[in-house]
Design brief:
Blueprint: H1 3-17, H2 29-34, E1 36-38, H3 50-63, H4 71-75, H5 78-91, E2 95-99, H6 102-113, E3 119-123, H7 128-137, E4 140-144, H8 149-158, E5 164-169, H9 181-190, E6 194-198, H10 212-215, E7 224-229, E8 239-243, H11 245-254, H12 256-259, H13 266-281, H14 284-300, E9 309-313, H15 317-329, E10 332-337, E11 348-352, H16 359-375
Bound molecules: pyridoxal-5'-phosphate.
Protein name: 8-amino-7-oxononanoate synthase
Domain Aminotransferase class I/classII large: 36-365
Cofactor: pyridoxal 5'-phosphate
Length: 379
């Protein structure tokens, strides 16, 4: 026994007691084939689209399995440039810089745009990657109440720092609510601040797939920086920052998670580029997603959110875990969200609307979950 063992044991005991112990059980081929998947983030069903697969295979044939170096050494390939162009066409933004994940895009964007002597104002519900980015930034960090514009304005007005970055998500990942982007942008402009918008759950979903920044008419706004993941509605892997050409150049030179990281694998870049094209060409996919979203929300008895995620609050982390496991045994996959992944501490079953799930199947699964939750006294 040593202090590390003692500490690891105690940490695990606490997690088990609080029903927050996690596992990563591989999904069997049978379950993958048969399940109603309301848990994955492949919102538009593009991860298994033959066109994305073909694009990925062609990129492997041409470039191999790895980009083999940092983008600033020899890792930047034509396929990365094609992806950046595709992201700009889809979102209407001026420039894009591809990272190897959405997490790293957030780390790179926020650390490179803030830093010592600046202020980071972060919404209370932002994703772990943005919380970590704020911690790494060495800026002064303040957290404001979720979507509370009055509190944000006070903090912007009272700041002593010249530069400030306001950090939000366009569609929040757990509650599925939308940020008031137009008002946030106005405030940031009035108080000379940068608005960093994580579009992980907006891109491919809101604005007929173009994302919430475009839908709010902010695609050309120089003070608005968006980050995206390529691993949700784009069905691939990776991340990007979308902004002005000037900001792209700054990030290429200053973002440590860009410079000191191997460039995105060519297969993922090619698949994501193909997804950008398909999202624009086939807007009916987004419409199907919203049909499933409304079927899910109605069947679960919850108000429909702004995006794909519909959440059913349950009584405790333990109940969430029990219900998610029962649903999995019935071939229904749902997200089980417990502390620390829930910003308000309320555990939830998270249903993800996906364009390729039949609305009837989604509704039947959500109704079953809600019924079980009521029976368990969990709702
Ligand atoms: C809001 C948000 N930002 C960033 C990420 C990270 O993206 P990635 O999985 O590409 O690292 C996620 C999800 O995983 C997310 O939900």
């Amino acid at each position: 026994m040593n202090s590390l063992d003692d500490w690891l044991r105690a940490a695990k005991r606490d997690r088990v007691a609080g029903a927050t112990q996690r596992s990563a059980v591989p999904l069997s081929a049978e379950l993958r084939a048969a399940a109603v998947d309301l848990a994955s983030n492949d919102y538009l069903g593009l991860a298994v689209d033959p066109r994305l697969k073909a694009a990925a295979v062609a990129a492997i044939e041409e470039y191999g399995c790895s980009a083999r170096a940092s983008p600033v050494v020899v890792g930047t390939l034509p396929v990365h440039r094609a992806l950046e162009a595709g992201l700009c066409i889809l979102t209407g933004r001026q420039s894009a810089l591809v990272f190897s994940s959405g997490y790293l895009a957030n780390l790179g964007a926020l650390t490179a745009l803030s830093g010592p002597g600046s202020l980071v104002l972060s919404d209370a519900h932002v994703h772990a990657s943005l919380i970590d980015a704020a911690r790494l930034s060495r800026a002064r960090v303040q957290v404001f109440r979720h979507s509370d514009l009055a509190e944000l304005e006070n903090r912007l007005r009272q700041r002593s720092e010249v530069r400030a970055v306001v950090v939000v998500e366009s569609v929040y990942s757990v509650l599925g609510d939308a940020a008031p982007l137009a008002e946030l942008s106005q405030l940031c402009q009035a108080y000379d601040a940068t608005l960093l918008v994580d579009e992980a759950h907006g891109l491919g979903v809101t604005g007929l797939g173009r994302g919430s920044v475009a839908a709010a008419g902010l695609a050309a706004a120089r003070h608005v920086v968006s980050t995206v993941t390529l691993s949700k509605s784009l069905g691939a892997q990776g991340g990007a920052v979308l902004a002005s050409a000037q900001i792209r150049d700054h990030l290429l030179n200053q973002a440590r998670s860009f410079i000191f990281d191997t460039a995105l694998a060519p297969a993922a870049a090619a698949a994501a580029a193909e997804a950008c094209r398909i999202i624009l060409a086939e807007p009916e996919r987004v419409q199907q997603l919203f049909q499933v979203a409304s079927a899910l929300a109605a069947a679960a008895g919850v108000p429909q959110s702004a995006g794909a995620v519909q959440s059913l609050p349950v009584a405790s982390a333990e109940q969430a875990q029990i219900l998610a496991e029962r649903l999995r045994a019935a071939a229904v996959l749902v997200g089980c969200f417990r502390p620390p992944s829930v910003p308000d501490g309320i555990s939830r079953l998270r249903f993800t609307a996906r364009a390729t799930v039949q609305p009837e199947a989604a509704a039947a699964a959500a109704a079953m979950a809600a019924r079980w939750a009521r029976q368990e006294g969990a709702a």
